[in-house]
Amino acid sequence: MKKIFYRSLIVLFLTILSLIVYLSLVGIETKRFNNQIEKKISNLSNGIQVELKEVKLVLDPINFQFNSKTLGPKIKFSGQTLELESIKTQVSLKSIFKDSFPLKNLDISTKSIELKKLISFIRSINRDPKLLILENFIKKGHIIADIKLKFDENGNIKNNYKINGFVKNGKIDLLKKHKFEKINFNFEIRKAVSNFSEIKFRYKDLDLVFEKLSTQNIDNEINVIGKFNNKNLIIKESFFQEFVNTDNLKIKNIDINSKSTFSFKVDKKFKIKDLNINSKIKLNEADLLNTFNLKSFFPKIKDQISFSNHNLQIDYNKDKFKIKGK
Phi and psi of 253, rounded to 5°? Predict the structure, then answer.
């Protein structure tokens, strides 16, 4: 009798162990929780529809929960469709046995989607007029993002959300005069602080690089801090003709290395204040056309003046503008 009991106990143990291993490695597919996930996303705004395939549940025995994941979901809004890579969440074992599934979090991963389409989707949730202006400025670009949302007991999104990813080959036109092309950068966005890194873009034949850019919302203002680092930046004559009045001294070309840090604040009316710039510039080469009538003072002066290997330190804020060089 004891042998039968022990054998039954061993068989039961091995069956449970096999089930745990199977659920941990393979998991099961079900549509049981689709309705709750779809409802949670649809509640973000009226007119949003969600299409989900089967949800796969994989056991996490250490944390006593199931990790759920659905591949290839779609979000439809205003006649447009966002194709996502996956939606993930966690389901406690307790809620499974109680036949309930209160969502505590959602992890959404997108495919490569059009940046303009994503801004349009965010506008459907947040009617901020600034987003409409941004949508009109953006001409092209793609984005891949991971979005992490957490919910409180009432089902509202907490302020500790996190969005990170990267933008590739973007293009922005500002008033048809200022065009920013080949925009690429990484980003991490939170409630109060956003960080951007490896920012590269082209503006008027200039290939510019920002190492990092951070923004922080404080008292209805946005504090911006950045770091700019470019080597062998070639600035051509056409650039100066558009921005600088150089009737007597015409700048042909400038080749510089520039390493700068800057900071400023933007108020709710989009006005910039408290601008600070600290720059270290190496003037590799600069060619200027001299149109001053200086022959009587300098008989051997040439029409073109060239500078090379100059070092400059520039400090600027609202109280001072200081240049040191050698």
Answer: -145, 150
**Beta strands of the chain (E only): which ranges?**
28-30, 49-51, 55-60, 65-71, 74-77, 80-92, 105-110, 113-114, 138-150, 162-174, 178-189, 193-203, 206-218, 221-236, 249-266, 272-290, 304-317, 320-325
Instruction: Report the pLDDT value the prediction gives residue 11, as an integer from 0 to 100.
Output: 65
Q: Measured between alpha carbons, how far is 318 from 276 in angstroms, rounded to an integer?
A: 8
Segment 226-239, tens digit of pLDDT: 998 888 888 877 77
> Out of 212-216, 239-243, 256-260, which region has the weakest mean confidence (pLDDT)?
239-243
More confident residue, 193 or 226: 226
What does the alpha-carbon distance between residue 185 and residue 169 come to, in Å, rounded to a whole number?
A: 9
Of the two residues 249 and 186, the one the predictor is more confident about is: 186
Q: Residues 72, 79: contact at Cβ < 8 Å?
A: no
Res 30 pLDDT > 70: no
| Helix pair 129-137, 115-125: axis angle to 10 deg | 170
Taking a C-beta distance cutoff of 8 angstroms, is the pair 139, 119 a contact? no
Question: Distance between CA atoms of 130 and 123, rounded to whole angstroms?
Answer: 9
Neighbours of 73 (CB within 10 A): 22
Is 202 buried (19+), middle (13-18) or exposed (0-12) by CB count in 10 A?
A: middle
Of 88, 77, 28, 33, give the one whose Cα is nearest residue 57: 28
Whole-angstrom Cα distance, residue 234 to residue 258?
A: 11
